[in-house]
């Protein structure tokens, strides 16, 4: 035992400090160091543990409930500020092909172009159908209406009237023109198409916050 102890080297103070520094420089010690999030979570956990401990049980009551409510409310407000109100993606809404009884994925601009082409050919029936679809598609692209699948022209007109009350009568007449041609087979006229096109143009330039009360 005496010879074994004699073979053991006992470092002096400087050498022992150097050995300790070399050992602590090993990356595994750095990985084990708690992050700022770990420290924050620990502090919050200690705070809640102290708040509801047996020593504080007599005084917790309403004060603890108020504190916890403030924390939860603050977290919700922060989430709303950072991420905003959840909304359905506009790209999903616009990409929906089914509109007014037809699978048509053309944009509002494309529908207006095709409607004008039909009008120049004096195909007022086709022009009327395409122009009302352009009216609905344009408002859908601007996220101003949200028609349910299979919505009728009258249902769309009601949604538009809720957004732009001053256009209630013209948009209802536009819906009637569409229904007359599409379902009742009544021939369209140049005058009714012109009125529908004018309504579409006004709606495309209106903004909800600019409409007078």
TrEMBL record:
> Per its UniProt entry, which superkingdom is the organism in?
Bacteria
Its keywords, alphabetically, are: Membrane, Transmembrane, Transmembrane helix
Query: In this record, what's one Pfam family?
Result: DUF4129
Q: Which residues form the Protein-glutamine gamma-glutamyltransferase-like C-terminal domain?
A: 131-200
**Spans through the membrane:** 64-83
Q: What is this protein called?
A: Protein-glutamine gamma-glutamyltransferase-like C-terminal domain-containing protein
Its lineage reads: Bacteria, Bacillati, Actinomycetota, Actinomycetes, Micrococcales
